[in-house]
Amino acid sequence: MVQLRDVEKRYQTRAGFTYVLRRITLDIAAGDFLTIMGPSGAGKSTLLGILGLYDQAWEGEYHLLGHPVHQLSAKERALLNKRYVGFVFQQFHLLDDLTVAENLDIPLSYRNIPKAERQGMVADMLDRFGMVAKKDLYPAQLSGGQQQLVAVARAIIARPALLLADEPTGNLHTDQGREIMELFKKLNQEGTTIVQVTHNEVWAAYGRRLIRLKDGWMEK
Fold first, then answer.
1. Domain map (residue ranges) of the chain
2. Which of 167, 150, 159 is nearest to 192 (CA)?
3. How many Å apart are CA 17 and CA 10, to the nearest integer?
4. Deepest in the core among 3, 105, 117, 124, taking most CB within 10 A?
5. Interval 103-161: pLDDT, tens
6. Per-residue pLDDT reduced to its tens digit, 50-100
7. Which residues have a Cβ under 8 Å from the Cβ of 159 and sit 6 or more positions away?
8. Among 3.40.30.10, 3.40.50.300, 3.40.50.460, 3.90.1010.10, what is the CATH number of 2-218?
9. For the residues of 109-162, what is the DSSP string, one character each?
10. Residue 175, CA distances (Å) to 46, 114, 122, 169, 180 in order
11. What order of strands is seen across the sheet that includes strand 85-88?
12. CB atoms within 10 A of CB 34
């Protein structure tokens, strides 16, 4: 599904180039559940941003489901993102002026899905996450755990081929974190490919495979 070859990310400084990622070569198969770990500043979130097609300024080769990302325009990459990628952020990134149901509808609105079908998909997702009673509430009216559940639901509602999660349990207490990780485990068993960044060894163990980054390098 994913092939990275010698991917590098660097910034220009007065002293020269500062590298955030160095020669990352990585394959991720469909159905994999990969955990990325490493100290702060190791390049974990940067790598996730590249995988998610959010970061445009990097070097190397990246193929996603056969598409040569490194050869595509920013517009073409954005279309790939909307078609294939779901992203769960640590800070939720819900739209404060939209209700729970409206937040879930956003990813569907990017696709040519009839409104009635979208409403059905939102209703199904609300039921699956036990959030039906909260569908008309706004993010500020929810607890942190509830906001993250909505964020996960929004990331998966369009059935992405690749689900990326950047410290998805970082702002949650242990029981809420376990609930999110059990949900990821189930999604992976259903066929969703997942890549998560975490500092938590317990949550890392939910993955099937682990890589570690240090100073931008992938440890052997």
1. 2-218
2. 159
3. 6
4. 105
5. 999 989 878 788 899 999 999 999 988 899 999 999 999 988 889 889 989 998 988 99
6. 999 999 899 999 999 999 999 999 999 999 998 899 999 878 789 999 999
7. none
8. 3.40.50.300
9. HTS---HHHHHHHHHHHHHHTT-GGGTT--GGGS-HHHHHHHHHHHHHTT--SE
10. 28, 37, 25, 10, 9
11. 85-88, 162-166, 193-197, 33-37, 209-214, 217-218
12. 21
Cα dist. 212→42, 81, 112, 209 in Å? 9, 25, 39, 10
Write out the E strands in the chain: 2-13, 16-28, 33-37, 59-64, 67-68, 85-88, 162-166, 193-197, 209-214, 217-218
Q: For the chain, how many residues are written? A: 220
* SS3 state of residue 218: strand
Question: How many Å apart are CA 22 and CA 12, to the nearest integer?
Answer: 15
- Report the C-alpha gap between 126 and 103 in whole angstroms: 11
Residue 77's H or E segment, with its range, is helix 74-84
Q: What is the pTM of this model?
A: 0.90
